[in-house]
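Handover notes (outgoing to incoming on-call)

Open items:
1. NADH-quinone oxidoreductase subunit J: sequence verified, structure written out, both below. Nothing else pending on this one.
2. Nothing else urgent.
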Amino acid sequence: MDTYDILLYGSYILIAVGAVVAVLMPLIKSLDNPKSLLKTAVGIVGIVVLFFIAYSISSNEVLPKFEASPFNLTPAGSQLVGGMLITTYILAIVALASIVLTELNKAIK
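NADH-quinone oxidoreductase subunit J structure tokens:
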């Protein structure tokens, strides 16, 4: 086993631990105030609804070169990837628009 492999596995473990801690610690902290869990649930449901809208409008077309051996992409996988991409695009546009509107609001005040 090479040093790079050991460091990669170590980084995978640290990423997994960080993800678990990033999810569990706010949940533990929010048990003091259950109303804060409602905001989190609304956000998660909103993102899930946005994903299903994006998934339903994405295409399941697969080019012949992506059906071959290295990719083995199916129409369902293509539609899933398309839905994720559209969701990412929408969230990025919303984030950029909110940044611009916030800065304009601060400049006006």
